[in-house]
Amino acid sequence: MHFHLTEEQTAIQDAVRGTLADSWPMERMHLFADGDDDFDRPSWNALMALGLGGILLRDSGMGLLDAALACEVAGEAAAPGPLIGQWLAVAAVAAAGSDAILLDALVSGETVATLVHGGSAYVPCARAADYFLVVDRRTGVRLVPAGDGVTIEAVKATDRSRPVSRVAIADAAGQLLFAADDAMTARLADAALVLVAADALGGAQKVTDLSVGYAKEREQFGQPIGRFQALKHQLAHMALDVEPARALLWYAAYAWDARLPDAARAAAMAKAHLCDVYVRSARAAVAAHGGIGYTWEYGLNYWFRRAMFDRAWLGSPSEHRARAADLAGW
């Protein structure tokens, strides 16, 4: 049994991290947040050029764990693209076997898909999306082309790294890929939870690293503030909150790939716990930075805002803990 990443999986993370460092620096993030767009094509194309679009295809030799590792790095960089919706759309279209041409366009990233949780929701990158993948445990999975019974209202949302719109989709719009009682519907819904948890892990690790780095550099009373006992304890608590959660995410993704009996429960627990960890870490990071943590220029707010959205998206932690309890028969 392996408890660490393979060389190939580490290489995936390194490639995504390097690509985002080049295509999505803080300066570009500021410009994007100050603009009106909800999608950044250059950084998206750079990621798709790595071949990430087909990571959930059966013949790729990869799976949800590999997608989660890439999504973790995207969360670390606060990347703007709808990676989660794109991956799930590829998996859904491939499993349905309905449109080879569309599948190729989704895999290449030329065609953009975003995820809709239920029939009416706040949706990232909605104005730029060509397709909407509606994943609803009660009604099934539908793929809806932009404009086909889709109403989009731009809103000024908290998350400035992934701007959202209020989206409503007509009940009969698009193509039904899987019915509510189809096993694929539940698998896609669970995969979405794992991937949001992965984004949260990346963000929580990022704000922890930023806080540790700042504590080593910022001086007060002639010494680095990291030497002060209260801040040492705070940073230690952040690290001890984040690192154990990594195993929970890895197991949830592995359980989904292996189709283990507790895969659905593991996905619910990962989503609930990682998103809470992200919020706690982001709040602690702002406190650790003092006044500069509140400034727009420093950029910590992007991860703080993203943490709030991850926590609310696809259901709250309390909702998923209740579901995990039900699945366990408690």
Can you walk through the features of this model?
This protein has 330 residues and is α+β, with helices and mostly antiparallel strands. The protein has a domain at 183-327: Butyryl-CoA Dehydrogenase, subunit A, domain 3, CATH 1.20.140.10. Helices cover 57% and strands 12% of the residues. A four-stranded mixed sheet has the order 1-3-4-7, covered by helices on one side. The model has no long low-confidence stretch (mean pLDDT 93).
Cross-sheet strand order for the largest sheet: 1-3-4-7
Give the CA-CA distance, first to last residue: 30 Å
CATH C-level label of the domain at 183-327: Mainly Alpha
Proportion of residues in extended strands:
5-15%
Task: Outline the secondary-structure elements.
Layout lengths: L6 H17 L2 H9 L6 H8 L15 H14 L5 H14 L3 H9 L4 E5 L2 E5 L6 E6 L3 E6 L4 E5 L9 E6 L5 E4 L4 H35 L1 E2 L2 E2 L4 H30 L4 H27 L10 H13 L4 H11 L3
Parallel strand pairs: 1-3
Antiparallel strand pairs: 2-6, 3-4, 4-7, 5-6, 8-9
Helix pairs in contact: 1-3, 1-4, 4-7, 4-8, 5-6, 5-7, 7-8, 7-9, 7-10, 8-9, 9-10, 9-11
Write a concise keyword list for the protein shown above.
330 residues, alpha+beta, Butyryl-CoA Dehydrogenase, subunit A, domain 3, 4-stranded mixed beta sheet, 3-stranded antiparallel beta sheet, 9 strands, globular
Q: What's a concise summary of this model?
A:
With 330 residues, the chain is of the alpha+beta class.
